Amino acid sequence: MSVNIKSTNIVKSLKILKGNTKVSVLSDPFWAIPYTLYNFYLSLYMKSLGVTDKQIGFLIAIEFIAGSIISLFSGVIVDILGRKKSTLIFDLICWPLVMMVYFFANSFWMFAIGYFLHAFMRITLVSYNLMVVEDADNEQRVTAFNLLNIISIVAGVTTPLSGLLVKQIGIIPAERILLMFAAISTFIMMIVRNHYYVETKAGQEILNKQKDKKLGTELLNAIKNGPYKNVFPALKKKPELVLVICIFVLFNIYVTIAAHTSLYYVPYITEVLKIDASAASILGGINSVMMLIVNIFIIPVIIKYNTLKNMIWGLGFQALSLFLFVSIPTSNFFAACTSVIFSAIGYSIFKPFVDAVLAEYTDGNERSGIYSLSYTIISILTAVMGLVSGYIYDFNPRLLYIFSLFMLIACIVILIILCKRMKIIHYY
Q1: CB 3.0 to 4.6 Å from 394: which of 13, 53, 385, 420, for a disulfide?
Q2: Shortest CA distance to 144 belongs to which of 297, 302, 356, 309?
Q3: Taking CA 370 as the corner, what is the angle to CA 89 and CA 264, rounded to the nearest 5 degrees?
């Protein structure tokens, strides 16, 4: 299998995009930059307010336990309310509102409320992805995912600005300034984006069919009949899709507990590797710069090769990064940089391809159910890992990253199996 990702510059890429797909990409920086600025130090902010390592694990579990329940019905909710309305309502809940909860938080329980509300992101993960991919052909979908990835990377370059603010005024006041800025920016963006959004053709067809149905009734029917009664027959016909979902699920769990966006990432750098908090933001900047370089110079070269083989190489670099992360001595900034560089290379290679593969393998009325099922599984398994991860980190932080290394190895094994099913012999 090969997903057709074409090499295009940003201007040409934007010309390819149309409608909701283009609106989604153009509006994304107004979420990505504020999110990057506050999220890097969020875990240290929580710890400064008295949240313990074990409680961080509980917060992850709270979000994903709630998320696992919400995910069960996310496809039904999105189909009844529509893609556009669902994206607006639940984006406002799980971003600007949650940011304000974090702003006023002064205890574990306030953060627990924020993480519970953030679990509604499981609905907007489905609706937003559908706004991006529906009404778009495969070239537009992959171009959009690539541009969204680049936007996220460029936003990451601003991370050292957070470090400067933290160094000047301290972690708590700095983080609250960044949270307020993020809440205002994302609220305005979401209102403006909704103005330009149009319900997708597939979404409108579903709305027309279900215009006399009520959300409450449909949720009860979903509970009675099972929310995925139409999904499992489709999966039986596509065994390769099952393998793709397994990779998608494992990788997203890894991202939650061990990648550069994890709540444990900055505490590990500062507490275990003994690197100064303000210097840690430099590592975040290096990560983003490397990811940008990979997207500009490496992705255009490797796109002519098979997608699955590219994904194997991407996972391999990330596995090497984790091995270094648990092996390097304390206070060794150069070694930490090396690990970050390998991680950035691997993540940048892998992420756009896995997103594109999942979109490529789903179509029509089954897509919302497939996405919903995927995020439900992610939520359930991450909830379990959230409960366990806090204790693992408290016992020995390096063990958490060793466990994550085995998850990446499992993804590589599944990809090799998928390659054999697709009769792809060589992995180079």
Answers
A1: 53
A2: 356
A3: 70
Does any domain span residue 4? Answer: no
pLDDT digits (tens, 9 = 90+) for 233-281: 777 777 888 888 899 889 988 988 888 888 889 899 998 999 988 888 8
Q: Is the pLDDT of residue 428 over 50?
A: no
Euclidean distance between CA atoms 353 and 5, whole angstroms: 8
Contact 63, 119 (CB under 8 A): yes
Read off the amino acid at residue 225: N
Domain presence at residue 320: yes
Instruction: Report whether 123 contacts 150 (CB < 8 A).
Output: no
What's the CATH code of the domain at 230? Answer: 1.20.1250.20
Lowest mean pLDDT among 5-14, 49-58, 165-174, 243-252: 5-14
Please count the structural domains in the chain.
1
Q: Is residue 193 part of a domain?
A: yes
Contact 165, 31 (CB under 8 A): no
Those residues with Cβ within 8 angstroms of residue 60's Cβ, 6 or more apart along the chain or in another chain = 115, 256, 257, 263, 382, 383, 385, 386, 389, 390
Q: Residue 301's CB: how many other CB atoms inside 10 A?
A: 9
Rounded CA gap, 227 and 229, in Å? 6
Neighbours of 100 (CB within 10 A): 17
**Tokens, residue 77:** 């909710």
- What token pair was written down for 352? 């756009």
Judging by beta carbons within 10 Å of its beta carbon (0-12, 13-18, 19+), is residue 56 exposed, middle or buried?
A: buried
Q: In terms of DSSP H, where are the helices of 214-306?
A: 215-225, 231-237, 239-258, 265-267, 277-293, 299-302
Helix (H), strand (E), coil (C) string for 321-347 = HHHHHHHCCCCCHHHHHHHHHHHHHHH
Distance, in Å, from the CA atom of 100 to the CA atom of 176, rounded to the nearest integer, reads 9
**pTM flag (> 0.85):** no
For residue 212, pLDDT beyond 90? no
User: Does residue 428 lie within any of the structural domains?
Assistant: no
Contact criterion met (CB below 8 Å) for 244 and 370: no
